[in-house]
Amino acid sequence: GNSVTQMEGPVTLSEEAFLTINCTYTATGYPSLFWYVQYPGEGLQLLLKATKADDKGSNKGFEATYRKETTSFHLEKGSVQVSDSAVYFCALIGGSNYKLTFGKGTLLTVNP
Amino acid sequence: DTEVTQTPKHLVMGMTNKKSLKCEQHMGHRAMYWYKQKAKKPPELMFVYSYEKLSINESVPSRFSPECPNSSLLNLHLHALQPEDSALYLCASSQVAGPYNEQFFGPGTRLTVL
């Protein structure tokens, strides 16, 4: 079956630091990959997506590249802000199953 | 308009009450979803509606009853819930149910069962 593994949190950074949150996946076929962000007390927002190998998704300074050879979709941002503090979920939809499979989530805290 | 709306934002109910959660989208999406999210966990899929027909029920107890009156609306009827059903209930929609279609989530209804 499909599965997503994210780096365990929490992650604590200072403002303007570089962020990487690792995500690897197992899936049949060619999944679509997503990063969602959940701010405290809110629902999930789609941050970025990639639907085929070597695609790079980007939004609000965040980037992730679909690496089929390493089955990875790591999230990066060059300079984090306090407002980026949230929980980040890596997710996929794979094969004939249109169910979103989520990683466990990574809590990011950015201090001023 | 890329918004999914949910009402109410908060709901407190007793174990003998009957209540309903509502979800609405005006993006012309033909797939709608209910998820349940416990604290510090990822969302868990409950139901999928595709073209207003129930296509997936993830073995959800019958005290949760979904309804899709039209392509824009999705309800979740609640009856005889248990305290362990307290959670954030999220609605989502996508253009169609398929592997290349991102799901857009609403803000959720925070449910407390006393």
Coarse structural class of chain B: mainly beta
The greatest interface between two protein chains, and residues involved on each side, is: A-B, 25 and 25 residues
- Alpha carbon gyration radius of chain B: 13 Å
What is the helix/strand order of chain B?
EEEEEEEEEEE
Low-confidence stretches of chain A: none
**SSE order of chain A:** EEEEEEEEEEEE
What's the layout of helices and strands?
The complex is a heterodimer of chains A (112) and B (114).
Chain A: E1 3-6, E2 11-14, E3 19-21, E4 23-26, E5 32-38, E6 44-50, E7 56-59, E8 62-65, E9 75-77, E10 86-93, E11 101-102, E12 106-111
Parallel strand pairs in A: 2-12
Antiparallel strand pairs in A: 1-4, 3-9, 5-6, 5-10, 7-8, 8-9, 10-11, 10-12
Chain B: E1 4-7, E2 10-13, E3 18-25, E4 31-37, E5 44-50, E6 53-57, E7 64-70, E8 73-79, E9 87-94, E10 104-105, E11 109-113
Brief overview:
The complex is a heterodimer of chains A (112) and B (114). Chain A has 112 residues and is an all-beta fold.
Task: Walk me through what this model shows.
With 112 residues, chain A is mostly beta strands. In chain A, 0% of the residues lie in helices and 50% in strands. Chain A has no helices and 12 strands. In chain A, the strands form 3 sheets. In chain A, strands 2, 5, 6, 10, 11 and 12 form a 6-stranded mixed beta sheet that branches. Chain A has a 4-stranded antiparallel beta sheet with strand order 3-9-8-7, with no helix packed on it. In chain A, a hairpin with a 2-residue loop joins β7 (56-59) and β8. The N and C termini of chain A lie far apart (41 Å). In chain B, the strands form 2 sheets. In chain B, strands 2, 4, 5, 6, 9, 10 and 11 form a 7-stranded mixed beta sheet that branches. A 4-stranded antiparallel beta sheet of chain B has the order 1-3-8-7, with no helix packed on it. Chain B is mainly beta. The radius of gyration of chain B is 13 Å and the shape is globular. The mean pLDDT of chain B is 94. The interface between A and B is medium-sized, with 25 and 25 residues.
